[in-house]
Write a structure and sequence with these properties.
mainly alpha; rod-shaped; Septum formation initiator; FtsL/DivIC; membrane; transmembrane helix; transmembrane
C-alpha cells in the first residue's frame, strides 16, 4: 500500500498510464531498433557509404596516375623503354638476361 501511495506522488506515473504516450513510446522504440530502415541500419549504411566514397577517391587518383603514364608513353622512346622493362621485349640481334634475386635464401 505504501508503494502505491508513494507512486501517486510522482508526476510521471500518470504519463505511463496514458495510452497515447505508450503507443508513441512503442513507435519510437520500433523505429530505432526493429524497422527495416531503423536508425541502427542507417548508421551501418552511412559507414558503408563512407568506405565507398574513400574507394572512389582512391580509384580516381589511380586513374589520374594512369592518364599521366599514358601521356608519357605517347613518344616512341618511352614506349620502347616501358616494353623492355615490363615485358622483357628486345631488339633484333640482342639478348636479354633476367636476373632475379632470391630474398628468402639471403636471410
Amino acid at each position: 500500500m505504501k508503494i502505491v501511495e508513494t507512486l501517486k506522488n510522482y508526476k510521471y506515473v500518470s504519463l505511463l498510464k496514458n495510452p497515447f504516450f505508450l503507443v508513441g513510446l512503442l513507435f519510437v522504440i520500433w523505429i530505432i531498433f526493429f524497422d527495416s530502415s531503423s536508425l541502427l541500419e542507417q548508421r551501418v549504411i552511412d559507414q558503408e557509404i563512407n568506405k565507398l566514397e574513400d574507394n572512389k577517391k582512391y580509384f580516381e587518383n589511380e586513374i589520374a596516375k594512369d592518364r599521366q603514364a599514358i601521356k608519357g608513353l605517347k613518344s616512341g622512346d618511352a614506349t620502347e623503354k616501358y616494353a623492355r622493362e615490363n615485358y622483357y621485349m628486345k631488339r633484333e640481334n640482342e639478348d636479354v638476361f633476367i636476373i632475379e634475386f632470391d630474398t628468402l635464401s639471403a636471410q
